[in-house]
Amino acid sequence: MQAKAHATDYRRALAQFATGVTVVTTHDAQGHPVGLTVNSFNSVSLEPPLVLWSLALKASSVPAFETCSHYAVNVLAGHQLEVAQRFATRGADRFGPGDWHEGPHGVPVLDGCVATLVARHRGRHLEGDHLILVGEVVHYSAPGGYPLVFHDGRYIASAVEEPLPRALRSPWR
Q1: pLDDT below 50 — which residues of the chain?
Q2: Positive or negative, the Cα torsion across 7, 8, 9, 13?
């Protein structure tokens, strides 16, 4: 199998894992808000409260996230498809007026999200073509709602109307 075909097949296999959609935000060295759409977000630990996400080394925001002390992970709601697309578009004016505010530790926080976690930098690890960032959650809010989901290369903004029966829910809830 050719290397390019293998990479395409591998990427397609990974795309079968549905993820939530987040926008991670901070400020650059000049104090300008910086952010990007991320679906590589994950919980690491409850005690202490740790999260991780990964950032492609080719991303223009790498310098900001390498040097920031805090960042916000904004978990997007199903109605925030436009926000996800805007923060995923290179060169876009990502921080529109009226859809974000300064949050704890001065980080930009997006309005209308189902959850927001503000994390203090804890560790950065270079692996392959990505930088893995680990943060300790120092503040969070979770108004809830239906999340935006990414699966098979596309966003899914639909919601399940009825909650699953308790027997079908995660035993860790």
Answers
A1: 1, 169-173
A2: positive
The H or E element that residue 21 is part of is none
Q: State how far Cα 167 lies from the chain centre.
A: 29
Per domain, the residue ranges of the chain are 23-157
Q: Is 136 within 8 Å of 43 (Cβ atoms)? A: no
Measure CA 36 to chain center.
8
Residue 161, exposed/middle/buried by CB under 10 A (0-12, 13-18, 19+)? exposed
CATH number of 23-157: 2.30.110.10
Pinpoint the alpha helices (H) of 15-156.
62-67, 81-88
Quickly count: other Cβ atoms within 10 Å of residue 67's Cβ. 13
